[in-house]
Each structure stands twice: as structure tokens, then as C-alpha cells.
């Protein structure tokens, strides 16, 4: 079942879209907190986003750009704006289609179905990111995002941060981390783990995430 995230601040329009897409077997979620769309995006793991342009706080162009940092999933703009400049901007900034309001639900469903078929016929492009507070980790690209900054991690640094993110605020033992880093190609000892954690710390510090990894002496680490 395909999941569709609806980013539309008009409650009536949002409800109509949800009702109709559910009839066609789609799973939907309507964003309610427009101050930060990303938590809903990450938690719901949609296959497509339907994006209004005129939104509170930040417009749809902004949220499209943020989503494009993590995913290439289809984004369809739905807006009452009818100028060519808005349509061109929507497509050039990462949108896959542009539908004007008022629109026909039958046409919207047909377009959405066609785009989803094209996007997912050969490959599953589900979301592959983790978030803790305002830190976002792209697991596929080994990239960490915080605010408007980003940094790339090594394979081992990414594994360490992944395990910490999947256990937020909890102690992750050094033994467990070393087992997670172990693979067929390399041996990870206690000193190697320390070096990798320190490198990861420095990269997070440079992003503005100073002190985000706490050492529990003799035991392991946890995210603050």
C-alpha cells in the first residue's frame, strides 16, 4: 500500500483528499504542525508528498528543498497560484508535477497513480533516514544534517551514530558497538572504536552539536 503525505493547511481540502485516496486503497497522513513538516515526513515514511505552496511559517518550496536533502520520492505541488513562474519554480526546485486549485479529484488520483507506478515499478525508494531532536542522518549517503549544515561520515562513523540514534538517550555499550562495526573485511578493537567515536564527535561539534555524545566511563556512550 502506497503512503501519501498531505501538506495542506486548508483542513477541508486536506480531509477531502484523505477521504478519496483512502477509497482507492492509499494510506494517507495530513500534516498538522506546519512549523516543522519533517517529523511527520520521517515518521510516516511516505512514497509521495502532495504539497501546497502557501503554508504557515515556511512555504511549500522550502519544505520541498528540505525533503530533497534526504529523498528523491515524488512531490506533487497543489496550489491556487497559476503563474508560469510559480509552475517553473516548482518543477526546477524538485517537484514532479503541478496541479492548480480548484482541481478534479479524479484527475489528481489518476496523476498520482501514474507517478507512483513510474517511480516504484522497478525499485523501492522508501525513506532511509533517522532523526533525533534536530539531527537527521541519511543512512544511504552517510550524511548528517543539522540546521542548514551538513557533513559526511565514514562507514564506521555512520554505524556508530546509527546505533546511538536507534537507542536515543540510552547507554550503548562498547562491546555492542564493536560487534556492530565488525565485518568480514576488518577487525575493530577497543582503540579503533575510540578513534572513530572521537572523529564522529569532532564532526558533530563542527555542525553545532557539541557534547551530543556522552562517554559513560568503562561502559559505553549515549546521545544527550
From TrEMBL:
Residue ranges constituting the OmpR/PhoB-type domain according to the UniProt record: 127-224
Protein name per the record: Stage 0 sporulation protein A homolog
Reported function: May play the central regulatory role in sporulation. It may be an element of the effector pathway responsible for the activation of sporulation genes in response to nutritional stress. Spo0A may act in concert with spo0H (a sigma factor) to control the expression of some genes that are critical to the sporulation process.
InterPro entries recorded: CheY-like_superfamily (IPR011006), OmpR/PhoB-type_DNA-bd (IPR001867), Sig_transdc_resp-reg_receiver (IPR001789), WalR-like (IPR039420), WH-like_DNA-bd_sf (IPR036388)
GO biological process, one term: regulation of DNA-templated transcription
Positions of the Response regulatory domain: 3-116
Keyword Nucleotide-binding: no
GO molecular function, one term: transcription cis-regulatory region binding
